[in-house]
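Memo to structure team: turn this sequence into structure tokens by end of day. - J.P.
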Amino acid sequence: MGYSVVELLVALVIGLVLLLGVMAVFVTSRTSFDASEVQAHMSDDGRFAMTLFGEDLRMAGTWGTNSFTSMVDNRTLGPAERLAYLPVMAGDCAVSFYTNLDLVVFASNNANPFPTTCIPGTANYLANTDVLVVRYADPTPIADNLTANGVVYVRSETGNSVLFRGTGNAADVPAFPTNGTNHVLRMHIYYVANFTEVAGDGVPSLHRISLEAGPTLVDEMIVSGVENFQVQLGFDTQQPEPDGKPNLYINPDSAIINWANPVDMARVRGARIWMLLRSDRGQRTAPAPVTYSIGGADFTPTATDPVAGNYKRLLVSGVYDLRNFPLQAPQ
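Reply from structure team:
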């Protein structure tokens, strides 16, 4: 028995309604999945960056088996009887900056301290974000015959160390200290650029400049979608002598810190970091931007994707102790 035209039309309408319902469920599920995936991606990126900060800051100021910065020869503010091992580095952030170990940790507040050198101002740096510099010697000892050409090392023994540039020849490794071990000098500069890996792409990202063989500085993108990066330093105000515990967190431009005074550097005992991430693309389900309290100031994002909508955002933060260097040099 056949169907009438009316029955076929009713069946088609019912099928269409069911199909639309299935499609609506699919679109909703897909949107929710995309939003969850973006959130998970930002969370993973945030954890990764915070892990890098933690690894660097917890190692800051340790020079192999010696933790007394004042006992490292060839550093910028130290004895220079072996200065021939350390060439001037083209592209350095400032004169002899890469050997200025007294700046174990250095930061700037909402400003680029190196606009004409290692962080070109308008070309790279995202305005009103902080810059963080951390230095230490890699804990892995390198045998004299495995030192590489152009790599900067700290040759370290308890209470004594010297900076030198490897030549690839074990005979050129300094004889002092006699029983020292060689450790690669690490210097990492964190800042926010207004692009990822291709200038002009418009996606702000966390970058890291690292000291590499040459010596030279190498810039790499660490995490994309970073809209803001703020640092406060834990300062030990205990008088007359510091006790090694931060009891006041201050912005890097605070008058309390004299960056030219190594004694003040010994009072920087911790760091508090905030990082605001956003999705690479706008999300229809993302709420309008809100105001975030970051580094003691309010920040309200304004940028949205003109096609896709608002960006999803995630604020991550961490507090780190600088625990691997002493309060002062031995007397």
